[in-house]
Design a protein that fits this description.
about 425 residues, mainly alpha, Growth Hormone, Chain: A, 2 domains
Length: about 425
């Protein structure tokens, strides 16, 4: 927080989150008021996940081919422009949902560019890891307080008026990023560092004519996914959350089965984010960088084991403890962040970060959907316990692959140095 540019990014991140949360609640209520349909109201939330893969795949090239500050400010302005028509009384339901999709398409480009910019602001070392952790903590904290505050807000103003607050937060975020961060040239125009065996290389030199954005985005995704080390690290970011969201997706039926009502539901929804915040705070404040990297793979192998406790149909207190313990295991991402930024070359960093974000959001949506399908046949507790078994096995396999690629890349570096 002593770095002025990071303070601007941090404040803009908090404002953007506030705007997104207010818009999600307001849109859900607005769509239900317009249609009277719970399905359409739920679809509004789903549309916040599904288009991520479109923006993250087809528009990722923007993160590297244009100056980062320009991309960030433009994304905020586009989001504000999308929300304005939603706030007008004449906007039909089809337009509202289409604009909701547009917001979700822009979001991964914004988030990926911001993540890559952190490495420019804080460097590639420990400050980058701690900065990323702080932004994740803000995101998790927003889940705890944002929806409650949004619900209170809607008792005072109408959903359409609440959307005007979202417009204001996007505009304030754009202002902070425009005047609080320094202009830097596009990554694709920078002189690349000498290529090593640990990173995928770009296929064209910065001086070659620019490809169309779509082709550049797809080529960047292919380059990122073609490298075994980077591909394994991406899977380590994606696969554990796909299983970890299962108890949250099934919190409502489990709270009903326990007879704990809305209070129990709220506690079950909060437990995992609280555990995540606690784990990241402890790892960031008390563990040295080398220790965080050393414990990353053991943590990811253990973080889903608490879900096995659901096989014994735990009560509310025991369930909360299991979720808190599992959430704390998310601290593995601090070590993973350092490996990832070291494995991806600078001129591909924006596209890699955008792909990471898009995949993470998409696969969490897939995990929630699969949890619902499995629970229809196996029940809630068996589904959560099964997620613990399958998730732990998947994480262990990925940890072995990550260790193997690390050893191989290290050997390649030694031969290159020799």
């Amino acid at each position: 927080m002593a770095v002025p540019e990071f303070r601007a990014v941090f404040a803009a991140h908090a404002l953007s989150l506030l705007g997104v949360i207010v818009s999600e609640i307001a849109l859900s209520v607005l769509v239900y008021d317009l249609t009277g349909s719970p399905l359409w109201s739920a679809l509004t939330f789903a549309l916040g996940f599904l288009p991520y893969v479109v923006g993250g795949t087809l528009l990722a090239g923007a993160a590297d081919r244009f100056p980062a500050r320009t991309v960030l400010v433009t994304c905020d302005l586009v989001c504000a422009a999308c929300v304005v028509p939603m706030a007008t009384s004449s906007a039909p339901i089809g337009v509202v949902l289409a604009l909701r999709c547009a917001l979700a398409v822009v979001s991964p480009v914004f988030q990926g560019t911001r993540m890559a910019t952190l490495a420019d602001i804080l460097g590639d070392g420990d400050l980058f890891v701690l900065g990323r952790s702080l932004l994740r903590i803000v995101s998790q904290s927003s889940l705890l307080v944002g929806y409650g505050l949004g619900g209170i807000l809607l008792t005072v103003v109408s959903p359409r008026h609440a959307l005007l607050i979202t417009v204001a937060t996007f505009l304030l975020s754009a202002t902070l990023l425009r005047y609080g961060t320094r202009h830097r040239p596009a990554r694709s125009a920078r002189q690349p560092a000498p290529t090593t065996a640990t990173a995928p290389t770009t296929a064209t030199a910065p001086s070659t004519p620019a490809r169309p954005l779509l082709a550049d985005s797809l080529q960047g995704a292919r380059q990122v996914l073609a490298h075994p080390r980077v591909r394994t690290l991406l899977l380590l970011f994606w696969i554990p959350p796909m299983f970890s969201v299962v108890p949250e997706a099934l919190a409502a039926p489990y709270a009903a089965a326990l007879g704990t009502g809305s209070t129990g539901l709220g506690l079950l929804m909060c437990a995992l984010p609280i555990g995540t915040i606690a784990g990241e705070l402890y790892a960031g404040a008390r563990l040295r960088p080398a220790t965080r990297e050393r414990v990353a793979l053991p943590l990811v192998c253990c973080m889903l084991l608490p879900y096995l406790g659901y096989a014994w149909h735990p009560g509310l207190t025991a369930s909360l403890l299991l979720l808190l313990l599992s959430g704390a295991g998310s601290a593995y991402t601090l070590g993973l962040d350092q490996w990832f930024v070291a494995a991806v070359p600078e001129d591909l960093r924006g596209r890699a970060m955008t792909l990471l974000t898009a995949g993470l959001m998409t696969i969490q949506g897939v995990g929630m959907a699969l949890a619902g399908v499995a629970a229809e046949f196996a029940g809630v507790t068996a589904t959560v316990a099964g997620a613990g078994v399958l998730g732990t096995a998947s994480c262990a396999a990925l940890a072995v692959a990550a260790r193997r690629t690390d050893r191989r890349d290290g050997a390649d570096r030694d031969m290159t140095d020799g």
